[in-house]
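Batch 3, record 17
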Amino acid sequence: NAGVTQTPKFQVLKTGQSMTLQCAQDMNHNSMYWYRQDPGMGLRLIYYSASEGTTDKGEVPNGYNVSRLNKREFSLRLESAAPSQTSVYFCASSVQNSPGGYGYTFGSGTRLTVV
Amino acid sequence: GIQVEQSPPDLILQEGANSTLRCNFSDSVNNLQWFHQNPWGQLINLFYIPSGTKQNGRLSATTVATERYSLLYISSSQTTDSGVYFCAVLYNFNKFYFGSGTKLNVKP
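Prediction for the assembled complex:
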């Protein structure tokens, strides 16, 4: 099925552990994004990649790193997890449709708890 | 960055009622989109609407870019409309900034 696939769906980490969240899309979209969603705060952009080979910081990049492995895959890494990183993480991809719209597709999310 | 404010934060409706959700933004934007997050967490793209009015079934949206606001109308609401509605604005051509959402609960 076409779309954005995120793994894992759930994860519990201990403070200081590291992990990588994986995201892949099969829609040939150029741009990919990582967001975090906290209660009452909507979605905040962590990092984005406008195209293969480029990445840039969003609103809340501290504590995270990203890799745009190829056009399909965009991973998010937590090097040393902290309780403040407990959140739901969403990956998204987009393409600019004609006449100027953006087709925006989200993955189903990863619920991360850091204890 | 840009500020995106949505109102009301919470809304309870009886099935069949109509409602209007509002999104205000603090600067000129390249694009605006409305999303619905269902109770299971899935985010669905509703409208791409940088200006003007669009309709899709019982939902319609209007954006007045010169006055920096957008409205989402839900008519004859159904329980399946429950969830959180987000507006997101495209700023600096590649960063979408989300509002904090309107949580809608439609009761049977």
